[in-house]
Specification:
The complex is a heterodimer of chains A (about 375) and B (about 220). Chain A is mainly alpha-helical. Chain A has one domain. Chain B has one domain: Phosphate transport system protein phou homolog 2, domain 2 (Methane Monooxygenase Hydroxylase, Chain G, domain 1, Up-down Bundle), CATH 1.20.58. Chain B contains 6 helices and 2 strands, in the order ααααααββ. In chain B, α3 packs antiparallel against α6 and α4 runs parallel beside α6. Classes of the chains: A mainly alpha (about 375), B mainly alpha (about 220). At the A-B interface, α10, α11 and α12 of A face α1, α2 and α4 of B.
Amino acid sequence: MALITDRAKWDTPTILRASFVFGLIYTFLVGVSSLESGIKVMGADTQESLFASVSNPIAGLFIGILGTVLVQSSSASTSIIVGLVGTGALGVGDAVPMVMGANIGTTVTNTLVALAHMRQSEEFKRAFAAATVHDFFNLMSVCILLPVEISTGVLSTLAEKISGKLVGSAGSEWKSPIKKWVKEPVSWLKDLGDAIGAKGNILGTFLVIVGLVIILLSLAYITKNMRQLVADRIEASLNKVLGTGAGMVAMVLGLLITISVQSSSITTSIMIPLAAAGVVTLRNIYPVTLGANVGTTITALLAALAASRPEALTVGIVHTLFNVGGIALLYPIPGVRDIPIRAAENLARIAVERRYIAIAYVVIAFIVIPLLGVAVLR
Amino acid sequence: MVMSFFKKSESGLDTIAHRTISMLADARHSFDLASAAVLSGANPESVAQDIRTTDEHINQAEQTLRGELVTHVAVHGTTEIGSVLSYTLLIKKIERIGDQAKNILDLAEEGVSLVDEEDISELNEIRRIISSMFAEAADLMAETTTEQAREFYDRATELRHSIENKIRDYMHSEEPGYHAVPRAVLYRYWKRIVSNLAGVVTGVAEPLQKQGYIDDGETDLDD
């Protein structure tokens, strides 16, 4: 083995992989459209009973957390929410808390990655703090912006104005060009449903399930292939940016990596072994995580392109505004900026002394509380 | 800085390989200067700063490369874990060479100068051979086959044995201490440098499990 020349190995050509990714994005949009068609096929009563439980914003928040923990991807869960809003059955007001919940739910992935370092105290302390700084920041954002949104509707109003300018006002039908491109495959799925004798709610359920499977699988493969495509760029940029400091540059890097791989979980999880090994500090990781929060909103915006109502895009924009707003509120003032860092460091200190607390934290914060919340509030 | 994301990058391990080779060039620079201070009558004070700065540079490079290796695994997963572990061993060996060059400088700073001694041609010849081995090792790191590495290793072993014999001779020598001790110490550092160079090259060619050892574990290259 030579250090440089021998490692050249056969890999899928970039052009082939890039074409595959484009195909997957198309498939993803077909999935969103299929989900929307499935809900539309169901009767109004069924639609109403399906989404009655999310009329309470706190219940919606918990559903967002649970759904995202389940699929381990806020990109997937927010795309599904956008698809549902596109049907008209789920309102923007109900979807916004769910999207915020998705932001909290997505933080579980890197926390689980951090648990893998549990055997080594110091490593674990650094890894757990690096993971939970994301949790605390997102929790703080929700604690501030959800009440503000419920009482004033500032995020949805602003988003509605932006989507109104872009695709038309709420309640109208948006003739999305993407929607036309994905119409044909969705009609094939409908025909397939018809062929197997599915009608009404059964056909709707069939289309919803197929849509969900397509969304989750295509997103997973987009992430996998994009990661392969941009891995060397990610590595080179991380070495350059994180080696020389952090701040806004690191935030932009987090944004770019996440947009590239369509997953904030990938970006934030990459940071955990680096933190564990002491290669980067918690303060350097923090802005990357915030950039990832904004970057992950691109998927919901993409999903909105396949929806037939402007409200779908409104929700996608709310997701972006929420994350940008969180950064604008919490990051510029040093005293406030440090709160998630201090909280994460304190929790990591406690978790290192009593390891079961780390596991209990994950189970209680991401499963028990949301489950109880949904059970009580629905 | 963040625009680097949009530029096509070479593989992370290729970047690390180039920087490892550059570390080896720094180690050679230190070796040449330190040996010159003992053998060519160069003023130790005039080279000391350069050697120490170069050593700091080598140490810094080692730390940076360790971080970059962790980044590589974090981004690419464990597919290239064997290469990553090999690099951690390689860069440690090169870092040691930097330290050993500093040890040779210590000899010069203690007043050891062999420039006017009768065995100076022999000493200079060994220094020349070792110095050229640095360049060879760098070439082999970039592009090598197991046969080339084996051939390099055989020559390094031969040199190592010959140096060991000299050390043994000085240990039992009846020459006065001021004659025997500096030579024994200098040869000892050279032996360690040759071992580390052999380790660097075999590290590139051998499976990870065998690195640092040869002859089925009989010879410990770490010395």
